[in-house]
């Protein structure tokens, strides 16, 4: 059995100016993942986050995409590049992408 890894991506539902992210940008992100890997998932409920930077509190409304793939260097490289595109697409200084080993039963 090959090792699997889950990549999870959190993207904002609001731009930094408070305007809603248009649904087509979210749908495009999902489509790119599904087309690249053959399958993807998108949790449509709001994920609420909060973080501090230099004493200021920031709160986010986010959505989560995730993909389960073979644990291969080329997949990690894809997500590193994809992160840079998403930062531009959503006007963010950073996009949180995590990866986790996956054991499917």
Give a description of the structure.
- This protein starts with a strand and ends with a strand.
- The mean pLDDT is 94.
- The chain has helices at 23-37, 73-89, and strands at 4-12, 41-53, 56-70, 96-102.
- By secondary structure, it is an alpha+beta fold.
- The protein has a 4-stranded antiparallel sheet, with helices on one face.
Name its key features.
globular; Alpha-Beta Plaits; 105 residues; 4-stranded antiparallel β-sheet; alpha+beta; 4 strands; 2 helices
- Side by side, the strands of the main sheet go 2-3-1-4
CATH topology: Alpha-Beta Plaits
CATH architecture: 2-Layer Sandwich
- Would you report the number of β strands? 4
Gross morphology is globular
How much strand content do the residues show?
A: 35-45%
The chain-level structural class is alpha+beta
Q: Counting H and I runs of at least 4 residues, what is the number of helices?
A: 2
Taken together, the total number of domains comes to 1
User: What proportion of the residues is helical, as a percent range?
Assistant: 25-40%
Sketch the major β-sheet: 4 strands, antiparallel
Mean pLDDT: 94
CATH class descriptor name? Alpha Beta
Order of helices and strands: EHEEHE
Distance between the termini: 11 Å
Q: Ranges with pLDDT <50 over ≥5 residues?
A: none
Radius of gyration: 14 Å
